[in-house]
Amino acid sequence: MTGRVPDQVIPLVRRFPALASIPRVPLGDYPTPVESVRFPELDAPLWIKRDDLASTALGGNKVRALEYLLAGVQPGDILLTGGGEGSTHVLATAVHASRLRARVHAVRWQHEMHAISEDVARRSQRECAVVETTSTPLGGILRTLMRRATLGARWIPFGGTSPRGILGHVNAALELADQVDRGELPLPARVVVPLGTGGTAAGLALGFAAAGMRTDVIGARVVPRIATGGARVLLRALATARWIRRTTGVDLPRVRRDAIRVVHDAYAGAYGRVSPLGADAAAVMESASGMRLDATYSAKAFAIALRVARATDGVTVFWSTFDARWLH
User: Fold this and answer.
1) What is the pLDDT of residues 199-212, one digit of tens each?
2) CATH architecture of the domain covering 11-56+161-320
3) In 10 A of CB 148, how many CB atoms?
4) Across the strands, what pairs with 131?
């Protein structure tokens, strides 16, 4: 079973009808809500985009990319993907592929873990048809390349990050633009997201440009500096715009160079390592709203959102990317 409203015209297609030619399988429940939450240390409310509620099967930001990456998948198909041992991308791919009766072969690599990432890893082990785990990221990447050459499976990129997957986050930005137009929230000055492979940030920046919004994207880096940065996110956005033009003939506006900013001190020195900054922010969020944040991604990004909202004028939106509803 796929999303609740498969015949809904998504904002991307409503604004750019030619993009309907790009296959998509509806997996999520949209639009995800926006909420205003008051925190003791802030003079004004901080807004939250609840992408953690994107699907009752398993929410989070990965659902939007998978709607394009899993389009055309047939029952019995084998899909190959990879990521860290506690990767929410691997888990989301397995959960949503199983809704299409496909099977996922995952290659994972070990990294520092915490209680929630261990829960993610255990659920991934159950949801995937095959799981291989290596001791290092390099070993995982090499094993993945070998499996791509020999398995004959459909490849789902790391983090869901490719122009096709990023298209889902372009749609997410246009969805937020619609919510602004309907008066559900004020025009954001900035949106804060966790920054891993960069697909969410790149798609949002491109979508805001397409909507004519001068809303900046702030990425809280949660992976080694060599893996991502502002220039790389901008290049991903530009590459996605070029792919859209080649595929559909649609020209999207160019993303401003200063529209994407990366904050590096959210990173705790290792992927998956708990940061005191993030742990404190997660406690603040749970106390104020009841939401649980994961220590790998969302807690670190929320810490940056609090800091930015406290120090700057204008509306700040925290993009909630982790679905904790299934945790006990």
Assistant:
1) 999 999 999 999 99
2) 3-Layer(aba) Sandwich (3.40)
3) 14
4) 106
